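Can't attach files on this board, so I'm pasting raw text. These are the components:
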Amino acid sequence: MLERQQLVRLLRQVPLLHGLGPNDLSGVAAAAQCREIERRRFFFRQGTIADAVYVLNRGRVKLTQSTPKQAHVLLRFIAPGEMFDLTSLDGQPYTLSAEATRWSQAVVWKVPTMIALMERYPSIAVNALREMAARLQELRERYRELATERVERRVAHALIRLAREAGWRRESGFSLVDIPLSRQDLAEMTGTTLYTVSRILAGWRRDGIIESGRQRLAILQPSAVQAIAEDLPGATSGDEKPKT
Amino acid sequence: MLERQQLVRLLRQVPLLHGLGPNDLSGVAAAAQCREIERRRFFFRQGTIADAVYVLNRGRVKLTQSTPKQAHVLLRFIAPGEMFDLTSLDGQPYTLSAEATRWSQAVVWKVPTMIALMERYPSIAVNALREMAARLQELRERYRELATERVERRVAHALIRLAREAGWRRESGFSLVDIPLSRQDLAEMTGTTLYTVSRILAGWRRDGIIESGRQRLAILQPSAVQAIAEDLPGATSGDEKPKT
DNA sequence: CGCCCACTTGAAGCAGCTCAATTGAAGTGG
DNA sequence: CCACTTCAATTGAGCTGCTTCAAGTGGGCG
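---
Top answer:
Structure tokens for the assembled complex are below.
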């Protein structure tokens, strides 16, 4: 757990609280709770009441939605500093679940508490709005993608997006996804099946664009992935130079 | 155009401004502008700078997104009272376009003006957040639908959604969509082609579930449409009684 | 009245899904 | 350290829902 001092220092980095002075931050911190969970456990589950707002401090969280018939959709990953999930301000049930992909720590405010804070410090509300607007915009783009693009391009986009959301580790000079990521996960991100993802990745591996193993994925030629995502020349041929 | 008095009376109905007193409303109204446009004209277009926030007063607006290759996606319709579109608070370009489907009137605030209003009247920001959260939630649901459901069910869902967003007119006892709605529009809403939509509607028409013509659509058996959307029994057989 | 444009319908092709069998890498326990 | 288990990943074969292309049809508006 965290001491107050430590918490305030943390919160200073959080985009949601930008523009607040030290005193304000201290007040906001006083209203917060802290929650830590293990890998594969949930901050909240689809169907339970949405009574809190989270800001991820350490770890990595994935947001998923599932249907009655056990079809799952992977909406996005949350990186440290990001807010999740302002689904409802009125005590409606969550329509998604938040699962830690490894040990994670989040700062939590009850919804009524957060609303009170926003009334008192309006810039929090404006920051939240900014974050929500960005989310909405990204999701709209993905929606368009899903409606108009072929699978291969969607998978390429998913990899590029993972670079931003999930982060990468440098390993022997290449980008390695910093998340345990199965074919199933990628399929659920792009609206396809794990078989199709496997075939696509196999093709890219043959072309030297990526390296991959069990829950592991490394991009050898970022520019080639970009080319596939954007319909540039040189998409399938492996004649691109690896960047880095 | 509108007088101040009239404008204030209007703004009292707007969810975005709920919780404000008469004086506050008057101040908010003073900072607003008013814009009226004809059918088929745009409040804003994809690519231009997002420097304003709109609240629709009268008419009907559709939000669309298009790709470089002229593929279009119809994101949603805006009904009077709704806010559109808080895409960006920072002067980024719009990633969508807002087109009037008939003569429309909207109240407009410049983005910096609206941010200042939110700082002054935090409940506006909270209301905006509420609206954004609802949008995000709905879009996530549609994203999941697009990723996991067949076309026929997506079209059924689109009709149900239109009932809420676009409104219906009662005509000889049946629900008629209150928007000029082509097969192409429905295709762009559901991520398919106008041909497939045409075939699906033809089937429903044979089963007596709908009536349809040129840019016209009437639902004869709402419960049958619901059944198709939700995978209930009695989906394709026309043995349901019309509600109403 | 005649043209335009939304809509319909058929036929062919294919991208991606489904099912099934196999491989192989990472634990696990003796 | 090796046998065993487990589970992600691969790959083939067949199928199908949907797209694509092309040719009509008919309602509505100028």
